[in-house]
Design brief:
- Two copies of one chain form a homodimer.
- The first copy, chain A, has 374 residues and is α/β, with parallel strands linked by helices.
- The first copy, chain A, has two domains: 263 residues, TIM Barrel (Alpha-Beta Barrel); 96 residues, no CATH class.
- Chain A is 42% helix and 19% strand.
- Chain A is built from 15 helices and 16 strands.
- In chain A, strands 4-14-13-12-11-10-6-5 form an eight-stranded parallel sheet. Chain A has a three-stranded antiparallel sheet with strand order 1-2-3.
- In chain A, β7 and β8 form a beta hairpin.
- In chain A, α6 packs across α7 and α14 packs antiparallel against α15.
- The termini of chain A are far apart.
């Protein structure tokens, strides 16, 4: 019943595990490529498999507006719609309502807003968010929450967090238990330890299939983010997966796994792939830069992806400058391959009890910066 | 030596053959996907193989401006640069100079123009066009010619065609014979039979590895285009491939093959794929249309491509409306698969001496129009 979580190994606070859903298994630490509008931009499902993706994230806010949850349900759900047979986690829509929608108003009942597409008026309540995610067919659904901006005074964070916890309870009450499907709660509380602790206590007493950490990577910086994780992760049950939402850079993933986080999602590898930015084991590279125009070497000689196997930096530079779709395809594939290989590397290191060395070695390489020009 | 052409079968005037180049063999009738800037837009080379592409076309004008012919030569040529191991035909740059460049001036020596990218001044002569195509490593190079606009008075077409024939002779003189590499002449003369005949005679007396028909599909209409082909194709040597440049719709390909044409290139399947237009055996379909929003059926049930195997019209409609890169990827792949399957179908029909039936059957299906909405 629900989604299953098997803890395979621990190394310090870092964990390796396995999550079982209605659409199959994924290993943790896991990175979920972001498939905002029922597509991971510039990647076909076969491409996603090829780079090692096991679970995708999709955005409820975007999908409820277009093509619409009822339509998606009639068409057999999100998996069939986008031709992805593996697990899918959907967010609740709350984050995008607050970052994208117009004239939003947060009330005790839920949030009212106007679509950024056509200005139509919408209501999203905790119960409706759960129902929509069921229509989509999400393997893992998230509770509706409010992600407060940063910086913001503590009193307003406290008020917002308390309401998010009431929404969490309503979400749980509305969630229909089905084999292989789960609901995750979301910890809030900004950078305030006491609020984070109260939120964690509220969530664990409600009881969820996993625990998200929300409201981070909104400008507080890596140090404060890690401080929050140091404080709050130990408050979650050990036998459930923990998910740091919307994070992050490779260094963030290493530090968060070290603190006991199991799951991540972030637009960074995909969005960067569309703007000529690539991740390598020697740090990030801007392919638009003229230094690459005559460089016959691949992006990352240590990389086994199809982009590095077939194309030079010179070609990638040309594609980025010519604004060719293939540049988004090749760089997105490379970046996701890099991220997913990092996750696999962390998982293996944890199982072999050498995570600290792995992390230090990876960070040392990253800090070297890009290879010298030819 | 040069490129080889083996005529395998004839059925009426339609021909099936095989062209051997330095980078392998392609069957005719052949359609060449257009890889303007060293990439067929939205398609990786593996995708091109998957849809059945055997030879690509690349545009000398675009490549000489960016990334530059000298750079491409230093990097090992176009094949290595774009990771395509099969044959490549390059145009001479003349057509794009006249359609894209700024402040162009055609003189006896060649054409002077300013780059549409940065306004830089360039000169393109017949000799330089041949040299650039050698730098690119083209298996088949085209002579520099001038493609007159339509409509235009006969005197100006005559003058332009005569100069293009002088350029053709200079191109041939400048072309260095190498194993597996060939140079094609280009027939001009607008819609005027006598000018077309004079041009064909000039070209055949120079002697080329193949014969292009240029200056068509510029607004004269299918009837006049076919009339020109009826008149001029019989004037070409039988033992060389004939290439109708920049054409066309599926109906154009059927009619041109019936008149003895062996090779084609056109941006239609790729450009249409980026604007939500798809080709099916029942005619063309605009995926942006709301009639597809709830349609669970594939684009074309008779199609064996990955797009039709994995995705509904509803999903394609969603991707087009959301302006997702995946819509360009899936529709371009489908459209090229459709075109290349049509070419293969024509080739098989010619070899089995049933081309007339094949053509009539294909045209009858096309004329039915799209399937009724669900």
């Amino acid at each position: 019943m629900s989604v299953g979580f098997e803890l395979i190994a621990r190394d310090g606070d870092a964990r390796a595990g396995r999550v079982t859903t209605a659409h199959g298994v994924f290993e943790t630490p896991a990175f979920m490529p972001v498939g905002t509008a029922a597509t991971v931009k510039a990647m076909a499902p076969a491409d996603l498999r090829r780079v090692g993706a096991e679970i995708l994230l999709a955005n409820t806010y975007h999908l409820m507006l277009r093509p619409g949850a009822e339509r998606l349900e009639r068409l057999g759900g999100l998996h069939r719609f986008m031709n992805w047979e593996g697990p899918i986690l959907t967010d609740s829509g709350g984050f995008q309502v607050l970052s994208l929608a117009k004239r939003r108003e947060v009330r005790e009942d839920g949030v009212a807003f106007r679509s950024h597409l056509d200005g139509a008026l919408w209501d999203l309540t905790p119960e409706r968010a759960v129902a929509i995610q069921k229509s989509l067919g999400a393997d893992i659904a998230m509770v509706l929450d409010e992600c407060p901006p940063f910086p913001i005074e503590k009193g307003r964070v406290a008020e917002s967090t308390a309401r998010s916890m009431r929404w969490a309870a309503r979400s749980k009450a509305a969630f229909e238990v089905r084999e292989g499907h789960g609901l995750f709660g979301i910890n809030q509380g900004g950078v305030y330890e006491d609020l984070r602790a109260e939120s964690a206590e509220a969530l664990t007493s409600i009881g969820f299939d996993g625990y998200g950490v929300g409201g981070l990577a909104v400008g507080e910086g890596q140090e404060q983010m890690f401080a929050v994780l140091d404080h709050v992760v130990p408050l979650f049950p050990r036998d459930k997966p923990r998910y740091l939402m919307g994070v992050g850079k490779p260094e963030d993933l290493l530090g968060a796994v070290a603190r006991g986080i199991d799951m991540f999602d972030c637009v960074l590898p995909t969005r960067s792939g569309r703007t000529g930015q690539a991740f390598t084991h020697r740090g990030s590279v801007n392919l638009r830069n003229a230094r690459h125009a005559d460089d016959p070497r691949p992006l990352d000689e240590a990389c086994g992806c199809a982009t590095c196997g077939g194309y030079s930096r010179a070609y990638l530079n040309h594609l980025v400058r010519a604004d060719e779709i293939l540049s988004a395809m090749l760089l997105t594939a490379h970046n996701l391959h890099f991220y997913l290989r990092l996750m696999r590397g962390m998982g293996e290191a944890i199982q072999e009890r050498r995570f600290t060395d792995f992390k230090a070695g990876f960070e040392a390489e990253l800090a070297k910066g890009d290879i010298a020009p030819v």
